[in-house]
Amino acid sequence: MKRVFLIIILILIFVNAGCTAGSSAIATINDKEIFRQELDMQMVLTEVSYNINGYEMPVKGNELEDLEQEMLNNVLESYMLVDLAIEKGIEIDEDAAVEQSESLIDGLISIYGSEENYENFLKEKGQNRKKFDEYIFELARTNEYIYDLYDEVTKDISVEATEIKSFYDENIMYYNYSTASVLGMQIEDEDTANVIHREILGKEQEYDETMLEYEAKTGVISVIDYGILYYSDMTKDFSDIAFNTNVGEISKPFSSEDAYFIIYVYDKEDQEAMPYDEIKDTVESDLLNEMKMTQYNEYFESKKSSYDIKIL
User: DSSP secondary-structure letter at 57?
Assistant: First the structure.
């Protein structure tokens, strides 16, 4: 697990800030209260992450509620992970946490152009600069605990040469730099996807033109030109469909990560997979990381039941 603190992945980072006076409790985990202001600050960072990646942050309705629930779950999980790290006697590098938090704050200031603009952004979100900076430092400390716990739990994992070669053979498409250029339509449900697919096939015009016309249709979430994709750019099920659809054709509707898609492949460039001997070290690292993450997740799942969580 790389010790990298990138703003672009803030939405995935767990937090564990301290309690804030005057903020109401929204959950408890064992004897610890989780406060609303803690979640609000996480949502501010999440909005920054959305903006950086070109996404629109939900502002109301079920989408906002779902996002807040996801962030609250992250806060709760972070508490458990830090608690488990402390139980194992892990002591973090405080200087590394300071450096990490200062780097993040500098990055935020850079995004907004100046300290004044950054502080104005925080004011718009109802945040105090001093308290928010303290929160970021606590976030950095939490990440140090999580990284160190990961290292401790996975320190004895190793791989054999035969396992590395088998992993390469089983995942050879990830080491193949062929590309597919894809226009994709994301659809709310399977029935709507099947209806749209039949309608597209029945129209006497180019598939891509027809798909773009459906962008505002009820049940269509989005129509996106993904451009040039490598196999590893998308989920396995999405990439399998993309690389097995001929140029100039559309796929049948398929599900990927709880959504339904129809895709149109408008170009491809085929290449041979990289020879095993040339990328053996990369393959070994990939396999090792996968095995470590599996063990880490299994360890965490085995510990969750010992925590009493209540949403208030």
Answer: P
- Residue 259 near residue 187 (C-beta atoms within 8 A): yes
pLDDT in tens, 10-25: 434 433 444 444 468 9
Q: Render pLDDT for 184-238 as a digit per residue (tens, 0 to 9).
A: 999 999 999 999 999 999 988 899 899 999 988 888 988 999 999 999 999 999 9
Angle at 291 between CA 285 and CA 295, to 5 degrees: 140
Helix and strand numbers, DSSP H then E, in the chain: 10, 8
CB atoms within 10 A of CB 215: 12
- Residues 265, 246: contact at Cβ < 8 Å? yes
pTM of the entire predicted model = 0.76
End-to-end CA distance of the chain: 34
Q: Which two tokens stand for residue 269?
A: 């460039």
Amino acid (one-letter) located at 86: I
Q: At what angle do helices 161-170 and 276-304 cross, to 10 degrees?
A: 90
Instruction: Give CA–CA dist 247/309, Å, rounded.
Output: 51
Contact predicate 98/140, CB 8 Å: yes
- Could you tell me the domains of the chain? 7-158+288-311 (1.10.4030.10), 177-269 (3.10.50.40)
Structure token pair of residue 10: 């803030």
